Each structure stands twice: as C-alpha cells, then as structure tokens.
Amino acid sequence: MKIIIRIALLAVLIPTMSYGEDKHNHEGNEITVGVEALSRDLRDLLSQEMQSLEKGMMFIIPAYNSGNWGDIETTGGKIKNSYILKQNLTEKQVKELHSVLPHAFIEKDQRFHYLSGMLEHAAKNKKEELINFYFSEMNESCLGCHSVFATHRFPALSSKEKEAEHSH
Ligand code: HEC
Fold first, then answer.
1. Which of 6, 36, 114, 115 is buried deepest, with most CB atoms within 10 A?
2. Residue environment code for 64-80, b if the CB has 16+ CB neighbours within 10 A, otherwise e
C-alpha cells in the first residue's frame, strides 16, 4: 500500500481533498463509508492486501520463536513495500483512491508501513527485543485501523472506538 502513501502526500496538497477532512471529523461509522465507497476492483485489492498482511503476521510468530531472523527481515521488508496495491493500480484507480480515502486512513497506513520497516531493521540486526516490540506495535496498528475504518467487517471493534473517544 506504499503507493497510497505517495498518493496521499499529493492529495494533502490538493484543496479538493476537503471531502476527506470532513470525514475525519465525523463518527467512526461515517468514516467507514470511505472504504465502502471504493469500487469493486479496489476493494478486492484491499482485501487481498489484508489477507497477505495476515499471512505475513502469522508467518512471523514461528520464525521469531525459532530465532529465524532472516525470515522476519524478508517478511518485514515485503510488508513494508506491500505487494499488491503497488503492482496493480491503474491511473484511474489511483485517482479514485485519491478522492475516496480519508486522510486519517492514509496516516494509519503510513504508520503501519513505518513499523514494518522498523521490524525489518530490527531483524536485520538480530535484536530480539526490538523485533518483539515492533511486531506488537504492528499488531496494535492492525487493530487501530480496523476499529476506525473496518468496523463493518469487524463489528466487535466498534465498541473499542467509542471507548477511545470517551477517554479523550
Ligand atoms: C490503514 C488501515 C488498516 C491497517 C493498518 C490494517 N488494516 Fe486490515 N483492513 C482494513 C480495512 C478498511 C478492512 C476492510 C476492507 C473492506 O471492507 O473491504 C480490513 C480488512 C482486513 C481483513 C479482512 C479481509 C477480507 O476481506 O477478508 C483482514 C484479514 C485484515 N484486515 C488483516 C489485517 C492485519 C493482519 C493487519 C496488520 C498486520 C491489518 N489488517 C492492518 C484496514 C487496515
């Protein structure tokens, strides 16, 4: 999803992006409309991307337990450069993402990719504690994005979002 980040940076500079800002200020379930408003193709790509992420995360657990730092480094790197969206987007789809996804989504995506880069780096240096730290931060980041943008898919997370609002 790295491409989304680049698009986002462009989007921030373009005033017509006010749509995204409005979404940002509203309730969690209204923001969800941003993702749900994506065309079938893009939605399928997002879904594939998510499934790859899940596989990657699950792959890391036994690799960590057996001290297989090399595999973690490779997986962290793959996640960082995320495969699918980057490879398959047409210009039209780029424009669509540009206008549909709220800025907060992009920020969370960006943060997630930063963390996977850090995981890759920690694995490269064979720093077990840091690997564990960044893996756990990534996990947190999955949940953090889902509880705002994917409550339609993971309804159990919608209450978490409300709690977060109250504690602020
Ligand atoms: C920046 C936001 C964001 C981050 C970060 C994120 N997700 Fe998601 N994820 C979504 C959204 C939005 C959906 C719902 C997509 C839809 O409804 O089409 C989703 C859906 C999913 C699904 C269901 C896919 C399907 O359609 O079957 C899985 C599995 C998943 N995510 C796993 C993960 C894992 C594992 C991580 C972390 C390693 C993660 N996601 C990080 C936004 C995110």
1. 115
2. beeebbebbbbbbbbbb
